[in-house]
Please model this.
Amino acid sequence: MNICVVGCGYVGLVTAACLAHIGHRVTGVDVDEDKVAALTVGQLHIYEPGLRELVQQNLLTDRLAFHCRPARAVESASAIFICVGTPPKPSGDADTSQVEAAVRAMGGYLNRGYKVVVNKSTVPIGSANWVATLIAEAAGAKQGVSFDVVSNPEFLREGSAIADTLHPDRIVVGTDSPAALEVMRRLYAPIVEQRFPHGDPCPAGRGSPHWMETDPTSAEVIKYASNAFLATKISFINEIANVCEAVGANVKEVSRGMGLDPRIGPQFLSAGLGWGGSCFRKDVSALAYIAREYGCTTRILDATLAVNEDQRARVVRKLQGELQILKGKTITLFGLSFKPNTDDCRDSPALAIAKRLLELGCKVKAHDPRAEAVAAQEVPAILMADDPIGAATDADAVVLATEWPELVGLDYRQVASVMRGRLVVDARNALDPRKLAAAGLKLVGMGR
Model:
């Protein structure tokens, strides 16, 4: 099947590479000429484990190509995926200007024959109808243009995006059109049947995904509600962690005991610095905004955002509690990306802490295995070090802000030997207290 993917950011690039790998002929379209030129020769602008190799492999087989102009790709495609960004506005509402621009540009090139337009971007509830109207306007009075709009939300996790695409838990397809459903079934058949003619780059052993067919509006709500629930679960355990600190309990033990209940499960019960990234804050805020538009209250969603914001402030308060005056102190951050195995620093808790420490007059040093260049663009005052030992040298305190395995597994005796102080704040509850104690360091965790 010929497929056009409009938008070669994180979601679009992963989607394009994975669809090409299962045998489709995919063209990724993006307005950024420099990005397209780099992608054409297999150079990526983001880090995601295994993605560069997958892109390069499919470029060599001619199943994957990239262009700036959508005309030919749209005209030949059976399915067109919209994968552009929907960043939050100050109000919390999603900014859909990129979606509108992409749809209008694409709609002008629709020709005779039937096409399915797939909303992969996380868009406000009701967007399927809105996109259909935009396409009809852009297509104008052309004869023979036939299309349907499908809501097909993505559920990718950065750091495991290829596995999440090829071995998803579920595939949600929202449409009222039998013709569109048939196209989507054929498109996703290799993933549903777990057959990969060109090999499986990341065997996951998850089995066949659940295939869910629903209406477009429900599919749009499923995406928002899923992310909002996961964010709420994290904020909930972080609030419990604060209670644990007050009463002398260990939140890691509490989380373990809770997670043994199959109704709760252990996932997303890791207390610490809270969530970040491009999705959770945006989607929780957008869902709350939509709810208010329809006269609904959002007390739980509002609390989810407030608790998460407070976790970042708690780390600074812990530093103040141990070091008193922070002005003039050197604080080292281990990790800058919002989670391990990505260079994404959008809404990164580590950068929020860095900004606050700089406001308080601290010297902030840091090391991250992948995200230093990205982080330096947002917070240039951070002093980057080539390795964690260099970052820890002369530090009054170290904060583990991102639980990269190589940072968790450091020899903390060596870290202690170069520090000026003895304080380590484990904002991810990932370090072994016994090892830190043996290194002569004082460990302060979250909820324990």
Summary: The two ends are 54 Å apart (CA to CA). The mean pLDDT is 96. Residues 317-444 form a domain with the Rossmann fold fold (CATH 3.40.50.720). The chain has three domains: 2-209, 224-306, 317-444.
